[in-house]
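Internal ticket - ligand job 310, glyoxylic acid:
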Amino acid sequence: MPRPIFLYKADPVRGAEWAECFERKAPELEFRQWPLDAEAERVRYLAAWEPPQDLARFPRLELVFSVGAGIDQFDFARVPPHLPVLRMVEPGIVDGMVEYATLAVLALHRDWPAYREQQRDRRWEAHRVRTAASRRVGVLGLGMLGRAVLDKLRGFGFPCAGWSRSAHTIDGVDCYAGPDALPAFLARTDILVCLLPLTAATRGILDARLFAALPSGAALVNCGRGGHLVQDDLLAALDDGRLSAAVLDVCDPEPPAPGHPFWHHPRIVLTPHIASMTQPGTAVDAVLDNIRRHRAGLALTGVVERQRGY
Ligand code: GLV
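stdout (structure tokens):
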């Protein structure tokens, strides 16, 4: 009996690591990397950053996995409605995001962008060191990433708050829910971290109106998606001092055009969408866990609600 195929369509280098994990952990499945020229009827599972055009080629497909935590890059028109799509929920991606967001918040808290500018200008000038207790951090988005980031930041002594569409309760974190609560959340936030999913409701949320609701001199970290940010509004807010600095891991488009101001703005730290990455070892464990749950008829982890957009 030929084995069912698990088809992978994403970064091939990390795909080779997935293959090695599958060989050890799931010998009952045949791991194959895209493209697959024949035997489409054996494909039972697909993991992709973006699904292929012609999913109808795989009549026995049962589950579609996103290799990323975000799924806005998915064109759901390509995925028949009966197929569950699963977001990547795995500890490796969480740990990476906690590191990056902590690095960014601490850099902003300790005036790193200003000191980089001073070094460039050979200027030796100390600014008052503020305590973590006096710097209020707020995280937009209270999914697995937002919650893990808040948990780490709380340990430094930052007063922490989170905002999300629906109500949450998190120990030691002031939770705000829904559009009506957004202004109050922003008014108490000195460093804002965006970890929202990109949906029709959150596209362009980081705009002039939102910046105006933050305390003067607040700072921004965007580790969500480039589409969350209205770029010209950020540049205006940095230029008029409403915002002091921004750390951006994402941009729309990626990369920005060669002459784009994000490349050289002294108060913007730009990284090439590397805040976190799915780690093959832990990702394969999470994927296999869902496959086993699916076979046993149990509830799956990370199921995307298409209507909601994440
Ligand atoms: C990366 O951006 C991801 O969604 O995992």
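Auto-summary: The chain has a mean pLDDT of 97. Residues 5-90+278-296 form a domain with the Rossmann fold fold (CATH 3.40.50.720).
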